[in-house]
Write a structure and sequence with these properties.
The chain is of the alpha/beta class. It has two domains: 278 residues, 3-Layer(aba) Sandwich (Aminopeptidase), CATH 3.40.630; 108 residues, Alpha-Beta Plaits (2-Layer Sandwich), CATH 3.30.70. The chain contains eleven helices and 16 strands. A hairpin with an 8-residue loop joins strand 3 and strand 4. The longest helix is centred in the C-terminal third of the chain and has 23 residues. InterPro entries: Amidohydrolase, Bact_exopeptidase_dim_dom, Peptidase_M20, Peptidase_M20/M20A_hydrolases, Peptidase_M20_dimer, Xaa-Arg_dipeptidase. Belongs to the peptidase M20A family. This is Peptidase M20 domain-containing protein 2.
């Protein structure tokens, strides 16, 4: 076990093992709900370091729970390991997994002195599937006194300010026909999508500030001489909060209804997951993280326009409504290369990625160490008037 100067946990002793784990995940990307190898490799890593491991956690085949220690206070490190369809680990979830697992491993020596139980919750399907929301509904996270994870980005941005987001699947069903001989017999599902996209483009002038609407068409037809009978797509609607999201989502749905009405096709507008919430940051934990980040030489002064990855939506926001939590972004120093680009997947292995693993695991472990090593004072009180631990035990904030 590495004990850094000042008696704080560090991740250097097991860094090579964490790098191997991260690179293995990166080389074998698995998409939402399909992370079978990633779950197995995560379980094996944590078992190797003495954690009690439960696979298929709470009935989810690709979720893992691991625990170390028997203390009355509980700190949770959250692992993500799903990849993006067609882009692999272009959001860097392999690094998230290594940082969270590494932080838990580094903190083990303090489990007894700090009266801690160290939990690792490996959650599937962050990329649109809402895996943490499903786990939260099944009883995960709620007994934690603090939940932590860090997310890679082009630059450091400690405070998470994600949009609330709704993910919807769109399907138009019309009637196929020969495009030259019998066009009047068809009902063009592709035209329905075109009309919906035009309506969405016009809607943007009336969108409230701080909102986003975007998506893709995934099915557009099979042959140019056949009127498409079916088209499909995936659409995301984002707003500053869940309260603002639902009325905006309804306006987006109406744009798709316009396409169906104009083309005499049928519309299915179906949620792919529960909406992701805005984030509720634990200020004391964030202050500790930020102070330690500066102490180890992290640069937190990147231009504002480089730091906007902290606006990306996450189902960790739903967890933060029930448990004190932070979700800092840690930089690979690669701007203008940014998340969800093939070039970002490339920098999620190598020298910069290895530094992020070591720094991120160390910072998460040190944040938890200091958080539980001293009792919160009046200045650490939650804005609602209770300390973070009291907020968790009283049931947390709104879902």
């Amino acid at each position: 076990m590495t004990v850094e100067p000042g008696g704080q946990p560090g991740a250097t002793e097991h860094l090579e093992r964490l790098i191997t784990y991260s690179e293995t995940l990166h080389a074998h990307p698995e998409t939402a709900w399909e992370e079978h190898r990633a779950a197995r490799w995560t379980a094996e890593l944590l078992e190797e370091f003495g954690f009690d491991v439960e696979t298929a956690y709470l009935g989810f085949p690709t979720a893992v729970h691991a625990a170390y220690g028997t203390g009355r206070r509980r700190v949770g490190f959250v692992v993500e390991y799903d990849a993006l369809p067609g882009l692999g680990h272009a959001c860097g979830h392999n690094l998230i997994a290594a940082m969270s697992a590494g932080a838990a491993i580094a903190l083990r020596a303090w489990a007894d002195p700090l009266d801690l139980r160290i939990d690792v919750i490996a959650a599937p399907a962050e990329e649109g599937g809402g895996g943490k929301i499903e786990l939260l509904d099944a009883g995960a996270f709620r007994d934690l006194d603090l939940a932590l994870m860090a997310h890679p980005g082009p630059v450091d941005a400690p405070r998470a300010e994600p949009y609330a987001v709704a993910h919807d699947h769109v399907r138009f069903t019309g009637r196929s026909a020969h495009a030259a001989a019998y066009p009047h017999e068809g009902r063009n599902a592709n035209d329905a999508f075109v009309i919906a996209q035009v309506a969405l483009g016009l809607l943007r002038q009336q969108l409230p500030p701080g909102t986003r609407v975007h998506g893709i068409q995934t099915v557009g037809g099979q042959a140019p001489n056949a009127i498409p009978g079916t088209t499909e797509g995936r659409w995301y609607t984002r707003a500053e909060s869940l309260a603002q999201l639902e009325p905006l989502r309804r306006r987006v749905e109406q744009c798709f209804e316009a396409g169906a009405l104009a083309t005499d096709t049928a519309l299915e507008f179906t949620p792919e997951s529960r909406p992701y919430s805005e984030f509720r940051t634990d200020e004391r934990a964030l202050e500790i993280y930020t102070r330690h980040a500066l102490a180890i030489g992290r640069r937190l002064d990147a231009p504002v326009e480089h730091r906007t990855m902290n606006r990306a939506s996450t189902d960790m926001g739903n967890v933060s409504q029930h448990v004190p939590a932070i979700h800092p972004y840690i930089g690979l120093d690669c701007f203008p290369v940014s998340n969800h680009q093939p070039e970002f997947a490339a920098v999620c292995v190598g020298e910069a990625a290895n530094r992020v693993i070591g720094d991120g695991a160390t910072l998460l472990a040190r944040t938890a160490h200091e958080y539980f090593a001293r009792e919160p004072g009046p200045a650490d009180a939650d804005p609602a008037g209770s300390t973070p631990v009291a907020r968790r035990r009283s049931g947390g904030g709104p879902a």
